[in-house]
Amino acid sequence: WFKMAATTKSTGLSSYEQKRLDNIKQNQEKLKSLGFATAPVDEGPPDIDALLRAEATPSRKRAKKVAKPTLQPTRRSSRRRTEPSRFEASPDNDAPSPPKHSRDGSDDQVSSTTVIRQLKVDQANDEAIERCRQAISQLKKQLSLETTQHVAETAVNDHQQLRAEAVRRWGSHVPSADKVADWALYLGSRTSCLPPLPSPYALLQERFAADPWYLLCACILMSRVSSLNVKERCLAGFFAKCPTPSAMLTTDPAELKPLLHSLGLFPSRLDALMDLTYKFLTLPVFKVGLDKAVKIRGVGAFGVESYQLFCRDERITPTDKNLRAFAAWRASVSGIKDEPVVKDEPVVKDEPVVKDEPVF
């Protein structure tokens, strides 16, 4: 015991650890005598002070990366590798990045085609704006304008009172009193029936069912547009600028371009809106249909069926699936069991682009 205690005191190991090391050393000597290689003997626990000194030694700092020099653009094509580059880097790095060009050298042709196409679009827009301006000027001369105040002062009979109501609804650009023979028919043909009950489909036509001009304008602007956000923004901007047909005659058509640009097909839509406004204000009896006598530019089957359903409360079988669903829902709510009546009118595709010339 005294011998083990002395050993423990000199080496700093317990008796068990010292005995373990002795056994390992004895076994290694036996393996070495038999010709087997042996691993070094574990002399004891690691030196804690040495480890702490190693951790305290600061590590070497990494060398900073040297920025590689900017290389000039090279040709990837072996056929053009020897040719000089068309776009050189400017010393001040202020020049815009060159456009991407194809390997077959067709970049000049593509660029010129894009410019020509844009010029044609701008020219078509300018021509539509100029046509609309001329039509507004002719319509103002034809209507012999009277102000709302003057009509209110001279409203002494039913005939003039009906015209005063038309001025209140659609502005002062309605025809003069002597231009319309039957003002009751003029008002009645432009007045909607009772607006339908709100449907679970929440169609945009339901908002404008109280006024045929609003509803048909919305149909012209909604045609061939899928984004609901674009429809909402453009409709709100247009009706804020032109709350009545008369207001559209006092608005410069160029001011409508930024409001309706997102919809596309601006010249066709502007022609359609002008044709609708012209007929809405001037015709003794306002009618909407697909026949040539009552056809409105840019208003096809979708617009006609919307007008019949929401403004005239007619029972039809629409060709559009959303209108057909609304008609079925309205029939179920009203309790009508018989089948809707199908109008004997040809079905044409609703397109804002119409090849026939405007009537104005």
Anisotropy-based shape: elongated
Unreliable stretches covering 5 or more consecutive residues:
87-99, 145-156, 338-360
Query: What would the average pLDDT be, to the nearest integer?
Result: 77
Counted by DSSP, the helix tally is: 14
* Largest sheet: number of strands, sense, barrel closure: none
Determine the N-to-C terminus distance: 126 Å
Strand content: under 5%
Using only C-alpha atoms, the radius of gyration works out to 44 Å
- The count of strands amounts to 0
Protein structure class = mainly alpha
Following the backbone from N to C, one meets helices and strands in this order, namely: HHHHHHHHHHHHHH
Specify the helix fraction band. 40-55%
What does this structure look like?
- The chain is 49% helix and 0% strand.
- It has helices at 2-11, 15-33, 48-56, 107-143, 148-154, 158-170, 183-188, 212-222, 228-241, 245-249, 257-260, 266-282, 301-311, 321-334.
- It is an all-alpha fold and 360 residues long.
- The radius of gyration is 44 Å and the shape is elongated.
- Residues 87-99, 145-156 and 338-360 have low confidence and may be disordered.
